[in-house]
Amino acid sequence: MRIKKYVGYTTHEAMNKLKKELGSEAVILSTRTIKQKGLLGFFKKPMVEITAAYENSRSNKGDLYDERLNRISYELNVLKDMVQKISSEVKDNGSKLPEQLEKYKHKLIENGVDYSIANSIFKRLNEQVNFEDKDNIKIKTILRETLLEYVGLAEPLNTDDLNQKLVFFIGPTGVGKTTTLAKIAGKLVMEGKYNIGLITSDTYRIAAIEQLRVYSDILQLPLKIIYNEEDMYKALVNLNDRDIILVDTAGRNHKEIQEGDEIFKAMNSIKNKEVFLVLSCTTEYKILQSIIKQYNFIPDYKIIFTKVDECENLGNILNVKMLTNKPLSYITTGQNVPDDIELINREKIVNSLLGEI
Description:
There is one protein chain. About 45% of the residues lie in helices and about 20% in strands. The chain is of the alpha/beta class. It folds into four domains: about 1-55; about 60-95; about 95-150; about 165-355, Rossmann fold. An eight-stranded mixed beta sheet has the order 6-5-7-4-8-9-10-11, with helices on one face. A hairpin with an 8-residue loop joins strand 10 and strand 11 (about 340-345). The longest helix has about 30 residues, at about 60-90.
């Protein structure tokens, strides 16, 4: 990791110098105003100094090594899934489902529901209900109502208690946290009921700050950039007239997330808050399991699924709901701000899982 400083008469000028030389993936360490040396320190306009860090280019050898490790890991996971599936089928051989239930179970699996989750749902349902005297219409009705209960009702952002509420958006890199935050901010601005403020702690990438700055300018909302817990308290003072403050957090490899990170220290110190874990619907279920495990130190959060328009199926929505038992909230269906976001519709999800849409 190397460190370099850039100076300009404005933040924009210094940032342009930085981006031109290091690109948009450099890590911003600090931004400060400095005085120029002049006659007794007077008559000189102050300048902005940005300190950034950047990595040396990695060798092709290292990239090939990582690629091989990832390939081995993927193949091991596939093999593990096959063994688990065979093991489950052997165990379940003595308690075979009725033909109609078996048909619907395989339909769910075809539509992305994890085998073990689908199996547990149908096995429990078969233990609870006598299907011998039920026709196909009745079986389908029972199954639909069961799945609706498992998915649960959508829980949007709670705006009832607005004694300055902070709303944190957390999640791995590349899932679209910043765009999702901007969509919700846009919806709130359009309602015209609340004073909104924005905070970003995603100081790892210049591009993330610039993206949110563009949204804040368009929506005419104040934006504060924070680097640590102390900066959070300063930002709250500067935004003390705001009813809702939306906080964008760093998009990083989920394996690097730790409970002791500055943003989570800041989150824990806030009383009136809501947390949204943002996940991509296109992410492989095994990786979603790993992400959720990594964030298990956060007791309460709601789930937002992005890139639903890019999904082959909606099985992961039920998978994650069953895995976490956390409330589902919004889905996003494109890049348009603020339009491409809506509350999760459990009827649509169940219809999709049953292959009806």
